[in-house]
Amino acid sequence: MTETLFNQILQAQVKCKDCEDRRANIRVSIELKSTSNPVHKKDLVVRITDDIDPYFLYNLVISEEDFQSLKVQQGLLVDFSAFPQKFIDLLHQCIQEQDKDNPRFLLQFLSSTPVLDHTPAHLNIVETNAFKHLTHLSLKLLHGTDVEIKKYLAICLTCVKAQTKYQQQSEQQRRELESLHQKNIEQ
Amino acid sequence: MTETLFNQILQAQVKCKDCEDRRANIRVSIELKSTSNPVHKKDLVVRITDDIDPYFLYNLVISEEDFQSLKVQQGLLVDFSAFPQKFIDLLHQCIQEQDKDNPRFLLQFLSSTPVLDHTPAHLNIVETNAFKHLTHLSLKLLHGTDVEIKKYLAICLTCVKAQTKYQQQSEQQRRELESLHQKNIEQ
């Protein structure tokens, strides 16, 4: 079972090695995947995509065990179940500030290479105060494999087709209602 | 020329490897050393000592060049001249909170070994919010060499001797004044 907890386009500061920083829109999606066969297991899936670039896909799957390492490494004080909401709260703080020239909370997407290629990247949530940049969260994401991108594009295609079909049906219904209304007037 | 910017006893959380955390009083001193011969040069000296343990001495000397690395490494947004005051402001935030059970700002003294021996240690200023521990500053200090401890103890000894002498002189003056007062009454 997959529960979508967050799925929004956010403005991020994109920083690549030896390149000038730029602002870009990225889609951040957070999903909770539960399986109970063979064992009860929960994974948090963080996915970064770009609605304009179909090949842009970065993934991070955090299991309950992985989370323990992340917790120690980043000095987190919440458990696995409370983490997604705290992460979403931080993303909302970024959204609130994203149109400001000097946002207090900023979403960063960092690559250690000159271009966003197949190397891992970091998604950081950074607070800027008068003294320093304070990193509230730093997640290491892997570039999607061909299989993952294929699967993601298939889902996107299905969604777009369903949306188109829905729009066509709505349009058809609207025309039928109009025609019925016209006949009633004429009678 | 040495200018003392800060010299106070603070309560710190001492964390050694495989040991239970404990609270201890440490003296933090921050000095600005200026030399103009052969070149104009400023060094910020951070010294951690323990008024009870004469051999406890950790040092960090930050030159203007060193500061550039520290600035990049820790995402600082202030320059060398503004840094000491910001550091002192953070220490004052720790002082304000040090008697609380759950201080928002905490001074930490960390060693990667089971005891505070001759290995480097970290002086951290950590903010704790509902989500995580946020490190505002982390300074790596080196244990004082025999020569440094010798010099430090010589200064301490000179200060204590001067203080004792001052107290003896004050006491002497007090007695003389008392005796004079007594004579005046008797006349």
Supply the key terms.
187 residues; Dna Repair Protein Xrcc4, Chain: A, domain 1; 37% strand; homodimer; 2 domains; 3 helices; 7-stranded mixed beta barrel; alpha+beta
Write structural notes for this entry.
The structure is a homodimer of 187-residue chains. With 187 residues, chain A is α+β, with helices and mostly antiparallel strands. The first copy, chain A, has 3 helices and 7 strands. In chain A, strands 1-2-3-4-7-6-5 form a 7-stranded mixed barrel. The model of chain A has no long low-confidence stretch (mean pLDDT 91). The longest helix of chain A is centred in the C-terminal third of the chain and has 41 residues. Chain A folds into 2 domains: 143 residues, Spindle assembly abnormal protein 6, N-terminal domain (Dna Repair Protein Xrcc4, Chain: A, domain 1), CATH 2.170.210; 43 residues. Chains A and B meet through β7 of A and β7 of B.
Quick summary:
Two copies of one chain form a homodimer. Chain A is of the alpha+beta class.
Total domains of chain A: 2
The quaternary state of the protein chains shown equals homodimer
How are helices and strands ordered from N to C of chain A?
EEEEHHEEEH
Rg for CA atoms of chain A: 21 Å
- How can the largest sheet of chain A be summarized? 7 strands, mixed, barrel
Helical stretch tally of chain A: 3
Q: What form of chain A results from the Cα inertia axes?
A: globular
Distance between the termini of chain A: 54 Å
> How are the strands of the biggest sheet of chain A laid out side by side?
1-2-3-4-7-6-5
Helix content of chain A: 25-40%
Largest interface: A-B, 18 and 18 residues
- For this structure, the CATH topology of the largest domain in chain A is Dna Repair Protein Xrcc4, Chain: A, domain 1
The CATH superfamily of the largest domain in chain A bears the name: Spindle assembly abnormal protein 6, N-terminal domain
Architecture per CATH nomenclature, i.e. the level-2 architecture of the largest domain in chain A: Beta Complex
Overall mean pLDDT of chain A stands at: 91
- Global structural class of chain A: alpha+beta
Beta-strand percentage of chain A?
A: 35-45%
Total number of beta strands of chain A: 7
CATH class label of the largest domain in chain A: Mainly Beta
Could you list the spans of chain A in which at least 5 consecutive residues all have pLDDT below 50?
none
